[in-house]
């Protein structure tokens, strides 16, 4: 049995990363031959309405999280907005050994940690079409107050500054187009046109200070 591949998907909060990954996994589930799964991270943050423990995240106490760090149980871990997130090393290794392609939804810090250990992992960075669109998406989903949204926008600027570390950059303007491109990356057929590359350069200039 061949080993699976590890994909690291990062994006500023509100760029649509989770929606794209959910759609990607749904598309893969229609093909029995496609073994694609998403790692469920451990986190110390409070569970949000509609979330389920073990499905969205493994919700643990700060003490339990610290103990897992001491036991070196995480492939990567990071602190984001005062909460801790981490990926189980044993779980990922088991899936890869059994031929599963594994997706990690992590920030740039986590991506750097994983890449230092597993340089063969493929990193993908999702870009919003504009900062205005990013703020609108954060506001419209109704999960955070204005103070948190301001913090997320500030963090987005920091996150975007690390885009060059990614192997692939995708713009989530049109959802279906972004999903098609993401599927192409996962299955090795992504070839952006010269026009798409030019549009990406223009966008990056508008997103970065």
Description:
With 209 residues, this protein is α/β, with parallel strands linked by helices. It has a domain at 6-39 and 100-207: P-loop containing nucleotide triphosphate hydrolases (Rossmann fold, 3-Layer(aba) Sandwich), CATH 3.40.50.300. Helix content is 44%, strand content 19%. The chain is built from eight helices and nine strands. The strands form two sheets. The protein has a five-stranded parallel β-sheet, sandwiched between helices. β5 and β6 form a beta hairpin.
Question: What's this, in brief?
Answer:
With 209 residues, this protein is α/β, with parallel strands linked by helices.
Q: What name does the CATH topology of the domain at 6-39 and 100-207 carry?
A: Rossmann fold
- Average pLDDT, rounded to a whole number, is 92
Cα(first) to Cα(last) distance is: 47 Å
What can be said about the biggest beta sheet?
Answer: 5 strands, parallel
Order of helices and strands: EHEEEHEEHEHEHHEHH
Strand content: 15-25%
CATH fourth-tier homologous superfamily of the domain at 6-39 and 100-207: P-loop containing nucleotide triphosphate hydrolases
Number of helices: 8
Shape: globular
Total number of beta strands? 9
| Name of the level-1 CATH class of the domain at 6-39 and 100-207 | Alpha Beta
* Strand order within the widest beta sheet: 2-7-1-8-9
Coarse structural class:
alpha/beta
The poorly predicted ranges are none
Radius of gyration over alpha carbons? Answer: 17 Å
Helix content bin: 40-55%
CATH architecture of the domain at 6-39 and 100-207: 3-Layer(aba) Sandwich
């Amino acid at each position: 049995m061949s080993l699976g591949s590890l994909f690291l998907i990062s994006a500023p909060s509100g760029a649509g990363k989770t929606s794209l990954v959910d759609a990607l996994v749904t598309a893969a589930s229609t093909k029995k031959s496609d073994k694609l799964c998403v790692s469920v991270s451990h986190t110390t943050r409070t569970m949000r309405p509609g979330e389920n423990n073990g499905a969205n995240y493994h919700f643990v106490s700060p003490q339990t999280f610290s103990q897992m760090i001491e036991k070196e149980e995480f492939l990567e871990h990071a602190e984001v907005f005062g909460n801790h997130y981490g990926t189980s090393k044993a779980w990922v290794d088991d899936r890869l050994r059994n031929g599963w392609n594994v997706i990690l939804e992590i920030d740039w810090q986590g991506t750097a940690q994983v890449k230092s250990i597993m340089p063969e992992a493929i990193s993908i960075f999702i870009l919003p079409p504009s900062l205005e669109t990013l703020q609108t998406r954060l506001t419209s989903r109704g999960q955070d107050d204005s103070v948190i949204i301001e913090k997320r926008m500030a963090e987005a600027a920091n996150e975007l500054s690390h885009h060059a570390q990614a192997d692939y950059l995708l713009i989530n303007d049109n959802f279906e187009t972004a999903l098609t491109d993401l599927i192409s990356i996962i299955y090795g057929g992504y070839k952006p046109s010269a026009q798409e590359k030019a549009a990406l350069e223009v966008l990056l200039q508008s997103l970065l200070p």
